[in-house]
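Per your request, structure below.
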């Protein structure tokens, strides 16, 4: 039990020691983001912009149903779309690795080890 207390106290000390720099860096990042937001004249999208995006998406979906639309796309556009899809898939995989905290598989107990508990 004494070892657990030592580990907990050293962990608490480490977290306390790191909290200052983490908070400071978060505040700096927030200020930088605020300055970029102001300088670039950024603003949340308006209702008209949402409607324009909706109309554009609907137009794309309707045109995608036509075979002639797909015939008019160049080889470079197909390659670009494939690269974007590969990039999105890579980000998904990185998110999965971060989420499960393991490169391969999930830490699931087998049915045999579960039965041993009962």
């Amino acid at each position: 039990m004494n070892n657990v207390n030592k580990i907990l106290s050293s962990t608490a000390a480490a977290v306390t020691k790191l909290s200052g720099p983490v908070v400071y860096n978060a505040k700096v990042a927030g200020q930088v983001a605020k300055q970029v937001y102001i300088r670039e004249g950024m603003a949340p999208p308006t209702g008209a912009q949402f409607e324009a995006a909706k109309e554009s998406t609907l137009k794309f979906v309707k045109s995608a149903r036509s075979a002639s639309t797909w015939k008019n796309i160049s080889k470079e556009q197909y390659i670009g779309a494939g690269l974007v899809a590969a990039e999105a898939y890579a980000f998904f995989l990185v998110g999965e690795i971060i989420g499960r905290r393991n490169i391969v598989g999930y830490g699931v107990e087998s049915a045999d080890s579960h039965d041993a508990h009962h």
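Residues 73-118 form one domain.

Regards,
D.
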